[in-house]
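Example (one chain per record):
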Amino acid sequence: MSESDFSRVTRLLPDAVHQAVPRPGTAVVRLETTHDRQGALDGAWWPRSRDIASELPGLVTALSEYLGPITRVGLDGDAWDGLPTRMTIGDRIVHIDSFPVGDDTILVTRGDKDLFALLVVPPHATRDAAHAAMAAAVRAGGQTRAEQILIDTGTERAAPGQST
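Predicted structure:
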């Protein structure tokens, strides 16, 4: 896979998700809003670390290119280091909400109402486990909750204080 292929991974649709996930820092997104918040996911993100200040700008910038302006992000506050209430990314302020979902999901809001739910693959995941989790997250019609996907693929969150 060439370096230019790596930059296109965020554009994958469900039928192309079986291509290799190249490395942490990758997002795979279906680019459709989810109408049912009962476990359906719109995509997945594999950050390099749990440092939100270094990870979130890249995700928001990549998603903004395809979805338009991202206005709000909701994260599991226990899963991230130093979670602020807002960040300036590019020329926009992105509001950050913290909630204890415990299933490593990030909710991304476009505009004032379009909501996208992404599975967050833990940074410590192996490439194969991350690939399996990301493929499951974008499976068309999939209703498996993020927490169960992580369990099924062996990518559960590292325990607090455990290095990632």
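Caption: The helical segments are 3-7, 52-67, 127-137, 146-152.
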